Amino acid sequence: MTTDDHIVFIVDDDARLREALSELLDSHDIRAAAFGSASEYIGANKPDIPACLILDVELPDINGLDLQRQISKGDHPPIVFITGHGDIPSSVQAIKHGAVDFLTKPFSDADLMAAIQAALAEDRERRSARAELVALEQRYLDLTPREREVLPLVVSGLLNKQAAAELGISEVTLQIHRRNVMQKMAASSLADLVRIAQRLEIPITHSRRAGGNRA
Q1: Eight-state DSSP code of residue 97
Q2: b/e string for 153-190 if b means 16 or more Cβ within 10 A?
Q3: What span, in angstroms and rounded, lies between the C-alpha atoms of 76 and 181?
Q4: What is the pLDDT of residues 137-181, one digit of tens each?
Q5: Cβ-Cβ contacts under 8 Å for 21 (sequence gap 6 or more)
Q6: Which in 1, 29, 162, 175 has the greatest CB count within 10 A?
Q7: Do residues 54 and 10 lie in contact, with contact meaning Cβ atoms separated by under 8 Å?
Q8: Cβ atoms within 10 Å, residue 60
């Protein structure tokens, strides 16, 4: 029985190959969904789970490389290209635009499965990173306006008294806001808070050295 926590999409106009690949994936307990054209794939409802796209270069309605460019601006599964007419420029272009692999027919089952597993692992990591970012963004939104002012000053390395002077508040009040920021952002340390600020792309416009010069 195939598992439902990941899926492999197959886009190839060769019905026999689609069937063979589907059977191969089934033998590895991997769910597959096969399509005979790019338009069928684009129009299909797709589950929101880790996935891989096995994509033929030569399709009846659109070139696989063109499809790669078309879907590149949105969320899409990592791509493993397969082709019976491989050439170096095409493979370079595919890899340059993020393809996991570019396999020329006939390829071995082992090579294909290795590429698929790499693609699924990449998509899981990507999804995990996206989920983490969404959680961080929500935590940031839960900060008060003043706490959002405190955060960049803290991660910039300013001393408490320098950050307090920057905001025109007492050092004790700054320390309270700083503690609240650490708790709400679930930061275990200042270094962790700095990493979070970098993930959120929060602009850092101050520095400890600059604060010291103003003092």
Answers
A1: T
A2: bbbbbbeeebbbbbeebeeeebeebbeebbebbebeee
A3: 34
A4: 999 999 999 999 999 999 999 999 999 999 999 999 999 999 999
A5: 10, 12, 32, 34, 54, 112
A6: 162
A7: yes
A8: 10
194's tokens: 């700095």
Q: Please name which of 122, 145, 141 lies closest in space to residue 200, comparing C-alpha atoms.
A: 141
- pLDDT, tens digit (0-9, with 9 covering 90-100), for 22-74: 999 999 999 999 999 999 999 999 999 999 999 999 899 988 999 999 998 88
Q: At what angle do helices 15-27 and 109-141 cross, to 10 degrees?
A: 70
How many C-beta neighbours within 10 Å does residue 46 have? 14
Is the confidence at residue 194, as pLDDT, over 80? Answer: yes
* Cα separation, 4 vs 190, whole angstroms: 40
Mean pLDDT value across residues 199-214: 67
Structure-token match 């069937």, residue found:
19
| Dihedral angle computed from the Cα positions of residues 86, 91, 93 and 97, in that order, rounded to the nearest 10 degrees | 130
Helix, coil or strand: residue 103: strand
Q: Who has greater pLDDT, 1 or 179?
A: 179
Q: At a CB cut-off of 8 Å and minimum separation 6, what does 96 contact? A: none
Residue 153 parent element (H or E): helix 145-155
Residue whose structure tokens are 């803290």: 154
